[in-house]
Amino acid sequence: MPPAFADFDAAVKLRPSDANIRIARGMILTGARQFDRALADFDRVLAFEPKKAGALVGRGLVFLQKGENDKALAEYERALVIDPKLADAYAGRAIVFRNQGQVDRAMADFDRALAIDPRHADALANRGFTLVITGRSAEAAADFDRAMEIDPTSAFVFVGRGLSMLASGQTDRAVAAFDQAIAMSGDDPVIYTLRGRALLAKGELERAMSDLDRALQLKPAAADAMATRGFVWFKKKDYARALTDLDRAIALDGSSVESYFGRAGVFEAQGKAERAIADLRKAIDLKPKNVFEALAQADAKKRIQQFEKRIPCGGAGSTAAGESCL
């Protein structure tokens, strides 16, 4: 538990009816993933102040952290009925909308939050993440820069800055940002995976492998880390290990465009054209979840077009000069 928790714990004992102190402690508990205890604090506040919008925002954050988007949305909307100018509620609802794939509604809510509070660092950082997802990396970098000025101690902001740099091909700057985020937050499998991805893009395969191994030690079922390590094995031309990792990644998350695209590359390298084509088609059919998946899907479409130029042996027609036979 963070050191600040003891201070708030003592303050609650001294002033048990102070709503703001209980909300602050609930937020710390939420950050520590002590969700039941956090909800108990927020519910206690609402028991004696039913219209305390901040407690509803706290409940929304708990449900958001638990992945219960519908429940989170209901709490944020209850808060906004009470206080239509509550920036935290708009910022939280925006994240729910983004999670639900409603990017336009998410952006509108982030804009509302920032119109109310231009120095809302979380809204800036999360709007930046949303811009990265939609491929608008330059705009995202501006949001992360502003968020960093407001809160230079936030690992989340450095992760976002690294992500925007990586999406725009600035791999050195991406690695530097992820270095900062790791120094601030310690062992986080997501950040190790992202830095591994950046190092892979730089061609530093051994360092990339080290980061991805660390991510998988911390979270063995991390599909993104498993898939990215598969790409590293592919670059090292160890196709058997690449296939093993990509198979596992797909078993963990069957909706990943990148995993199918990566496995298609392995099958192609192994001369298994039909299986490569099947995976490319799967990559094209899936909905990209971020800018990297969108890029992988675009590459998959190009690869399919290249395969379609080839005429299978034994099929109708003949193979033109210079073309391959599948």
Features:
326 residues; elongated; mainly alpha; 76% helix; single chain; disordered C terminus; Serine Threonine Protein Phosphatase 5, Tetratricopeptide repeat; 0% strand
Description:
- The chain is an all-alpha fold and 326 residues long.
- Among the domains are: 118 residues, Alpha Horseshoe (Serine Threonine Protein Phosphatase 5, Tetratricopeptide repeat); 61 residues, no CATH class.
- 76% of the residues lie in helices and 0% in strands.
- The longest helix is centred in the C-terminal third of the chain and has 18 residues.
- The chain is elongated and about 70 Å long.
- It starts with a helix and ends in an 18-residue tail after the last helix.
- The C terminus is likely disordered.
Uncertain ranges: 314-326
Number of strands: 0
Overall body shape: elongated
Mean pLDDT score, rounded? Answer: 90
Span between N and C termini?
59 Å
CATH class of one domain: Mainly Alpha
Give the name of the CATH architecture of one domain: Alpha Horseshoe
The H-and-E topology, N to C, reads as HHHHHHHHHHHHHHHHHH
**What percentage of the residues does DSSP assign to strands (E)?**
under 5%
Main beta sheet strand tally, sense and closure: none
Rg measurement, Å: 23 Å
Write a brief caption for the model.
Helices cover 76% and strands 0% of the residues.
Helices and strands in order, then pairings?
Layout lengths: L2 H12 L4 H13 L3 H14 L4 H13 L3 H14 L4 H13 L3 H14 L4 H13 L3 H14 L4 H13 L3 H15 L3 H14 L2 H14 L4 H13 L3 H14 L4 H13 L3 H13 L5 H18 L18
